[in-house]
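Q: Structure for this?
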Amino acid sequence: MKPGDHGLSPEGADEAWAASLAALDDTSLDQVAKMQVDPWARAAVVCASTVFTAPIEWCAVLLGRGSEVVLKVPGSDPDFARVLVDAAAATGLPLSATTDRQAIANCEYVLAMGSDESVAEIGRGLASSVAFEPHGHRFSAAWICGAELADDALIPADFRDAVGSVAADAALYDGRGCLSPVVVFTTLSSATDELAEALARAQDRWPRGQISDHEAASIRTRAALAKVTGRVRSGRDWSVHELPAAHWKPIALPRSIALVRVADEAEAAAVLRPWKSSLSTIGTDGTWEDGPRVCRVGRMQRPGLHRLHDGVDWLRTTARP
Amino acid sequence: MSWTGRAAVLADRIATFVDDALADRKTEKFSSLAVDIHRWQATRDPVVASLVTGPVHGWEDVPSVPVALFKHLPVGTVNPQEEGHLFRTSGTTGSGRGIHRLRSTALYDRGALGWMRACIPGPPSDVVALLSDPHLTPDSSLSHMVALFAPPGRVSWHMREGRLRVDELDAKVRSSDRPIFVAATAFAMAEWLDGTVPRLPAGSVAMVTGGFKGKIHKLDDTELYAEIQQSLQPERLVTEYGMTELSSQLWGTAEGPYRPPPWLRVVAADPQTGALLPPRISGQLRFYDLCNLDGTLAIETMDRGIVHVDGTVSLQGRLEGAPARGCSLTVEEAWATDGSK
């Protein structure tokens, strides 16, 4: 049974499921199991409404260690939670789901994903003895410099070149996740056209799902800015907005990526500096000196279990210190 | 500063249009004047020129500038530092505030005062404003507009340094022995009503503008209007819709839609595609304002509404579905900040 598609196309939802489950390979789970940790007795995972598969890895790790887990989900998709609860029950794992925020009050550990305001509100409602791990507003960026990329079997076959990988990252969840690249910084003169071609291929393979009226209008607004200050390439349900750095802000728009030309990594880093505290991931075909999480493009939204999440060693924090 | 050359010719045509419309005389065709204004603006404003995608035969073909662009770019036909007057959108920081530059407020003033009097016949000639004095905040278009509604010396201003001066406002109202025109934003009005307010003198008008724009307040618009009627008891309660980026305003009542002046056309567009919609279909609102000679003729907002067959407008709030705030700023939020926390 597949849950609601969260506004994604059927192809997009299938790809989201596949990507999230691919991270739970035997080798990774064995490595987690070997960590000498003391599990929380009762833990809660508070989900945001964007990346519907986000709680899967957290639940897998917590349950695998022996924690009882309460999944607090948005009211908009109780079906998805039921799928996970039923799957856990089939193997005797203690996972429950609720839309009631009060149900998490007696947990030892609470992980909350969402806006800065909502996670702060959740934190204020918890006792000081609760280990609270908030993950609020974040965005991610790609840095493409034309370096040679290693192949990666976890990335869809037609999207393993640098720009294709960015498109694959941007297409997953229609770009709504905090690991999704909202901007590409690049030194490559051909990047706008290459990214346009890759987004068109991504659209063919995983058509974009529904977007809100506000998102649609926002895409047109930024397209207008790019028409005046830079360049626009667009097609059915996708666009590339080439903008000068001075006019770029980190806005996540579904299947619409900003592109900023820079001279080098240092210039890209300078553009990102005012937003550094909100930066989640840098995806690159080369190297990047300083970021909470740096990975190969194509793996931004296909992270392995062993990583920092917003700079946090989450495999450690999901157990007692 | 005033208009010269081609701009002066257009300004004269616009002024004549306004005067003829207010006098119920036959006006020049809206579309032909709109297209001429647009064509002149496109030669002077790179923003408008960049947004033209095809031939412009009528006013509906004129490309609209998204309001958010005013925070980024110098939109309009007046170069920075050359303006005769300047309005800024609200905000507390230098970055992220939209700017509307004008060579002259002559057209703005003509249209604003004329249409207000057409919509509110016989308005009181004393104004009590829950706004800041335009001498202190000359970049506030709302204060500038309200200052037009009474002769100099007959307007009192009761917002200073961001605070509503409730005691002096109450005293002013209590001491008024003739009708007054009370002008307020929804937030200021709601703040005033939080206390015990004096009843307005007989024949008074209460004007509310702005709504709550998605911000949380214990009263919604309907409740606010009811509270005004009950506590202040104005003879007339009117609503005003305007924005810094436009030169003209729409007037309405608590129960009815907003009326645009004859020199302002409103249309709803499909938010998903940008295509114009016929009347009575809810959509994203665009405004085509002949008086916006120095700015840009056509503006696209993020407001939703219905344009009725008679051209009046019912507002329905902001477009729904701002990016789930889990991971993203909205366009408006992002462009209003420089990222520092």
